[in-house]
Amino acid sequence: MANRRSYVAAAELGGKIYVAGGMFGGAGKRLDRVQRFDSVEERWTTLPRLPQPIRAAAGASLGETFMVIGGTTPSGGGRQVYVYSPKRGWQTSDPLPRRLYNHSAVTTDDRVYVLGGYDTGSGELRSVYFTSPGVRGWKPSPPLPRRVHAFGAVYFHGEIWVIGGRRGEEQLREVWIFDPARSRWRPGPSLPKPMELLGAAVVGDQIHAVWERTYQIYDASEGRWRDGPPPVEPRHALSLFHVDGALYAVGGCTPELRDTAVVEKRQVS
């Protein structure tokens, strides 16, 4: 990327990776920079800046738009939602019902779900909200079974998987699975090793999860997690995407607490 950063809001849209905001440095400087990565040309394009600097937001795609949801701002923030489209640029959308950061957003077939996270006044959260083109504002959904933030989340085989995270001082091995059709949560296969501030992505019948030197792969055909090869540059607070047969690990912070601009690629199919 053009600059080092972690805790970004990122999403895949139309085969391209969008990255917005994030933080830089030990003081946690918030950023408003936005870039888009084209995996075919292997090139970054700089886009119009966010309306304000934001860190620890969640990114999602819905239709032809890229959404930046929640996150902390210079004035506190946490409820703001910004939507970007190439034709209209940045626009303000309906705010979240509450302040959130270190949460996750997942796009299903026709909805965006916002899950868990942290609120300075309330600590870790169980809350889940959703929106869709046919819904005005954000509607509540059955909450997570337990409070959690700093986790990974993916849409896998028609269900939402919440992977790892943190609760208090504990790094978690927990996995929770939400069935949107039945509006029910159930426990999933626990991680072999605890992970937080991880990146997660779906590759066919597999879920890939990366955190620092830990790389774990869930294979649906085997029904279990296994170890993958460790990343070249370990980092937490990263984003992970599967595009055109390759995994891309974007941004993050190294174990030595140095933000990185590195994009690491691993061919997987």
Tell me which CATH architecture applies here. 6 Propeller
Helix fraction, binned, reads under 10%
The CATH homologous superfamily corresponds to Kelch-type beta propeller
The CATH class designation is Mainly Beta
Q: What is the spatial order of strands in the main beta sheet?
A: 1-2-5-6
Which stretches are poorly predicted, pLDDT < 50 over at least 5 residues? none
Summed over residues and divided by their number, the pLDDT gives a mean of: 96
Which geometry do the CA atoms define? globular
Taking the alpha carbons of the first and last residues, their distance comes to: 24 Å
Could you please say which CATH topology applies here? Answer: Neuraminidase
User: Can you tell me the number of structural domains?
Assistant: 1
Report on the architecture of this protein.
The protein has one domain: Kelch-type beta propeller (Neuraminidase), CATH 2.120.10.80. It has a four-stranded antiparallel beta sheet with strand order 1-2-5-6, with no helix packed on it. Strands 7-8-11-12 form a four-stranded antiparallel beta sheet, with no helix packed on it. Helices cover 0% and strands 46% of the residues. The chain has strands at residues 9-13, 16-20, 23-24, 29-30, 34-38, 43-47, 58-62, 65-69, 72-73, 76-77, 81-85, 89-92, 104-107, 112-115, 118-119, 123-124, 128-131, 139-141, 152-156, 159-163, 166-167, 170-171, 175-179, 184-187, 199-203, 206-211, 214-219, 224-227, 239-243, 246-250, 263-267. The chain is built from no helices and 31 strands. A hairpin with a 3-residue loop joins strand 15 and strand 16. The chain is an all-beta fold and 269 residues long. The mean pLDDT is 96.
